[in-house]
Amino acid sequence: MKKLTPTELQKQLNTNLQLWKLESDVLVREYKFQDFIAAFGFMTKVALLAQQANHHPDWSNVYNKVKICLTTHDAGGITEKDVDLAQEIEAIA
Q1: How far apart are CA 27 and CA 25, in angstroms?
Q2: H or E segment to which residue 67 belongs
Q3: Is residue 36 within 8 Å of residue 64, measured between CB atoms?
Q4: For every one of its 93 residues, what pLDDT tens digit does the chain have, with 9 covering 90 and above?
Q5: pTM for the predicted model, two decimal places
Q6: Which of these, 24, 26, 67, lies nearest to 46 by C-alpha position?
C-alpha cells in the first residue's frame, strides 16, 4: 500500500476526517467519554474493527480519554488503510 500524497491526505482531512489531526505522518484523534467504562467499551469496538482490518492503532487510555494514532509503518506514513480505519472509528464514536 502506498503512502498518500500531501494533497490526497489534505482532501481526506478536509472532507472525511475533520476532527483528526496530522502529526508527523500520523493521524491523531482524542476522544472523551462520560467515564472509564464508556471509554473502554469504545476501545473494545475499535479493537474488533482493527483486528478485522489487520491494522492496529497505537493508542492510549487515561480514565475517560482515548487517544488513537494511525499510520502504516510499512509505507512510512498514512495510507488508505489508515483513512479507512479512521472513518470506521468515527462511525462508532
Answers
A1: 7
A2: strand 65-70
A3: yes
A4: 899 999 999 999 999 899 999 998 999 999 999 999 999 999 999 999 999 999 999 999 999 999 999 999 999 999 999 999 999 999 999
A5: 0.92
A6: 67
